[in-house]
Amino acid sequence: MRRGRETSSLVAVGTRVVSPRRGGTEADFAELLKWEEAYWDRQTPTSFNGHQRLFETFGAAKFRIQGRKEANHLLADLNGPHEAKLR
Question: Which end of the chain, N or C, is less surrounded by CB atoms within 10 Å?
């Protein structure tokens, strides 16, 4: 199982989404973690394999973005003179 920065980011989001302050329970959070940990192994549209299939079959231009810095550069290029809005 691959774990890393993506996982910690998902856990942070999950914590906010299923926290008791937002109506979630400890059981909800445990279930979310179990679901997230299976990301690399599941064979569903919301798994790594599902996302990989979507990427491979998409027929238009594609970009493999591997971090926030790359995403910001791509958005700046696409937005042209509006780059200042991204900061």
Answer: C
Question: Model pTM greater than 0.70?
Answer: no
With DSSP H G I counted as helix, E B as strand and the rest as coil, what are the percentages for the chain, rounded to 5? 65, 0, 35
- For the chain, the C-alpha Rg in angstroms (whole number) is 17
Task: Tell me if residue 62 falls in helix, strand or coil.
Answer: coil
Per-residue pLDDT of the chain (87 residues; tens, 9 = 90+): 454 555 555 555 555 566 666 777 888 888 989 999 999 999 999 999 999 999 999 999 888 889 999 999 988 888 876 545 545
